[in-house]
Structure formats: C-alpha cells, structure tokens
Amino acid sequence: MKKNHDKITDAYYGAYGAELMAASRERIHWVCENARGETVLDIGCSQGICPILLGREGKKALGLDLNEESIAYARDALQQEETGTRQNVSFLCANFTNCEEIRGKQFDVIILSEVLEHLTDPVRFLEHTLPFLREEGRILVTVPFGITQYFDHKRNYFLTEIFSELSEVYQVEKIKFFGSWIGLVGRKKSVQLSQ
Fold first, then answer.
1. Is the Cβ–Cβ distance between 50 and 88 less than 8 Å?
2. What CA–CA distance (Å, rounded) separates 178 from 103?
C-alpha cells in the first residue's frame, strides 16, 4: 500500500525550492502565531516543525502522527535542538482517536494542519477533539484549498465545505487564505468570541 510521507519540514527549510519554502513558512507561521496558550497538541504533526517552533518559544507541545517515519524524523530533529526546546516538546507515533497517553488531558491549542482532507468523516474527528481542548482554547485547521489530485486525499475543500464542517463542532473565529490552502481558527461553542 502506498503511504503518505508528508515532508513539510523539508519544504519549510527550502528542500523543494524557494516558492514552496515561502508558501510553507507562511502557513506554518500563521499556525504558530495563532497557537495562543501554553500547551499544544499537534495531531498529524508530520515531521514535527510546529511543535519544535512552539517549543523554542517555551510552549509545551505534543506532536502525534500515525507515520513512524515522520515521528522518527521529528524525534531526530528535536535532538538537534537546545535543551530547553527538547524539554518542551515530545512526539508520539499514535492514532489520536485511541491514544491512551493523552486520555484525560486538555490543551490550550489543538492543531489539525493538513489532516481533515485525509478523513472520510471529518466532523466525527472534530467532535473527538472537543474533550481535549480547554474551555477557552482554540483549534487551528488548515486544509488544501480547491481541487487537489493527491492520492491520499478523500475530499476537496472549498470555503463553504470546510466552514460548514468546522462550524458543526466549533465557532469559527478567523479564516485565512494561503493560495492553495485555507486556515481557520475555531473555539468551543460555549465560549463567547472576542470582538
């Protein structure tokens, strides 16, 4: 079976050219600047770039991914970081929906960056995130925007589709377009949105 080997960290550091590096950095920096709070859960963290960047800033970040190769890369990259960053960041190769290591924990931020397009039932997955997000916390979602032909994508997203799915579970607070990607920030529906 063909596996998805997302290499966002490689793109972030310019391995695939300046254009993809700029696009990757814009998206990743947007995610990180919207990761307000002290604790972060990055579901589908790939090579771990967001947890590492956030860990450098003193945030406690946990990255989860199903792909063993991606988690091995993330752990190797983390070992190259300073002691403080290494103490702030951890990675698990696990399936979020049945991960015992996070049961009962809550986070200030949950990141789902390029995750939902891989799922057949994204609303169910979003519902599963609710107990893991603190009452005042934020969920950050990015997905490819428009028609994509990637073998591992189960759906194409346009604004109305991703807005509708996220709105079933969360209040959408912010939307950002990044060329071929779209980002959204959501909060629990019980939380009053800031003006």
1. no
2. 34
Coil, helix or strand for 91? strand
3-state helix, strand and coil shares in percent for the chain, rounded to the nearest 5? 40, 30, 30
The first and second tokens of residue 168, run together, are: 């079933």
> What is the H or E stretch that residue 134 is in?
strand 133-144
DSSP category for residue 145:
-
Q: Can you name the residues that pair with 181 across neighbouring β-strands?
A: 144, 178
Q: What is the DSSP letter of 37?
A: S
Q: Which of 89, 156, 170 is nearest to 128 (CA)?
A: 170
Q: What are 23's two structure tokens?
A: 């696009």
Residue 47 and residue 108: Cα distance in Å, rounded?
Answer: 21
pLDDT of 178 strictly over 70: yes
**pTM to 2 decimal places:** 0.89
DSSP state of 59: -
Residue 157: the pLDDT is 75
User: Considering Cα of 162, then 165, then 167, then 170, what sign does the dihedral take?
Assistant: negative
Backbone angles phi, psi at 90, to 5 degrees: -145, 160
